[in-house]
């Protein structure tokens, strides 16, 4: 392989991975210099996000829809995933600059975006992609548990981390079982069993983010920074992994007998989220209810078209 070919492959990967990490390191240094240093740190992180998004845009795109075995290349879903999470991280950084908030959130946001970008570059290994998403969830949980010093933030962070960890382990097990089922179809590992395991993993990984599903009183407990990271970065990355899984494992994307139950559940969730948005309360709580409505719409769509729509 020529030097030009290597440069064409690895330069976008370098930009996508290293730029957010370098921005986090520089942002952490400037963040110790007071308010002005924290604003500079957020601007540095914003530049890192821009470089990472540019790297994803310049990376070679494989012909496959969701997976690729070509080093340094991205599937279309992976490119879209990186662009969306980079935009979410950039908006968080801009918000912290304009509101003169602490710069630690912007620094951690860059590490979260780097972890989700690594999952998009995982090639043909869905298990590695799931590990990248889990690392992002771990970072958000650490911020959620430390952003507020009282016990309420600690409870929310612990619940988030516990459920997300169980979901990540279940996803890895589901991907491994899908590989076994692909090698020996018709054996002990059936499609229905793989669907059940992956459904549980995605439900725990994605449905936990608003914190309404697991800890009803914790919806207002996490700090604003952790909530923004969870909603703007982790949810889109998890949904991207779900789309990649559906395309990489076509045996899971057929209709199921209980699709009408999923459709009804998604419709009720969307209605509840829309009605909850009208309830009096803080803006962050209303955003959480709006996200529930959006997840209900996603559930409605996946329930009618896929076999892991229960996530």
Mean pLDDT: 65
- DSSP summary: helix tally: 10
Helicity range = over 70%
User: What structural class do you assign from the helix and strand content?
Assistant: mainly alpha
Low-pLDDT ranges: 1-9, 209-220, 307-311
Dominant shape: globular
| Cα radius of gyration in angstroms | 20 Å
Proportion of residues in β-strands? under 5%
Please trace the helix and strand order, writing H or E for each element. Answer: HHHHHHHHHH
Largest sheet: none
Number of separate structural domains: 2
The number of strands is 0
Oligomer state equals single chain
Give the end-to-end Cα distance, rounded to a whole number of Å.
42 Å
Key attributes of the depicted protein:
311 residues, mainly alpha, 2 domains, globular, disordered N terminus, disordered C terminus
Topology:
Blueprint (H helix, E strand, L loop, with lengths): L2 H28 L3 H25 L17 H24 L4 H17 L5 H22 L3 H33 L7 H16 L17 H25 L10 H19 L5 H23 L6
Helix pairs in contact: 1-2, 1-4, 2-3, 2-4, 3-4, 3-8, 4-5, 4-8, 5-6, 5-8, 6-7, 9-10
Provide a compact summary of the structure.
The protein folds into two domains: 3-252; 254-311. It has helices at residues 3-30, 34-58, 76-99, 104-120, 126-147, 151-183, 191-206, 224-248, 259-277, 283-305.
């Amino acid at each position: 392989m020529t030097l030009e070919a290597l440069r064409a492959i690895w330069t976008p990967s370098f930009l996508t991975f290293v730029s957010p990490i370098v921005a986090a390191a520089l942002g952490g240094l400037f963040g110790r210099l007071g308010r002005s240093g924290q604003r500079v740190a957020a601007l540095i992180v914003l530049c890192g996000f821009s470089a990472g998004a540019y790297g994803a845009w310049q990376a070679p795109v494989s012909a496959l829809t969701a997976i690729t075995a070509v080093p340094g290349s991205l599937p279309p879903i992976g490119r879209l995933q990186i662009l969306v999470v980079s935009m979410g991280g950039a908006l968080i950084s801009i918000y912290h600059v304009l509101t003169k908030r602490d710069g630690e959130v912007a620094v951690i946001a860059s590490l979260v975006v780097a972890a989700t970008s690594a999952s998009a570059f995982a090639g043909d290994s869905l298990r590695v992609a799931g590990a990248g998403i889990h690392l992002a969830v771990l970072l958000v949980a650490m911020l959620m548990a430390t952003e507020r010093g009282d016990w309420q933030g600690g409870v929310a962070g612990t619940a988030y981390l516990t459920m997300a960890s169980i979901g990540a382990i279940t996803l890895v097990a589901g991907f491994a079982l899908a590989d076994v089922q692909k090698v020996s179809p018709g054996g002990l590992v059936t499609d229905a069993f793989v669907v059940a395991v992956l459904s549980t993993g995605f439900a725990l990984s994605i449905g936990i983010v608003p914190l309404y599903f697991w800890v009803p009183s914790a919806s207002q407990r996490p700090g604003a920074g952790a909530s923004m990271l969870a909603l703007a970065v982790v949810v889109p990355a998890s949904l991207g992994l779900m789309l990649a899984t559906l395309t990489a494992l076509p045996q899971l994307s057929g209709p199921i007998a209980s699709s009408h139950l999923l459709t009804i559940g998604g419709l009720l969730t969307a209605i509840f989220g829309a009605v909850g948005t009208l309830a009096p309360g803080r803006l962050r709580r209303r955003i959480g209810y709006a996200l529930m409505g959006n997840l209900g719409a996603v559930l409605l769509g996946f329930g009618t078209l896929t076999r892991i729509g229960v996530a």
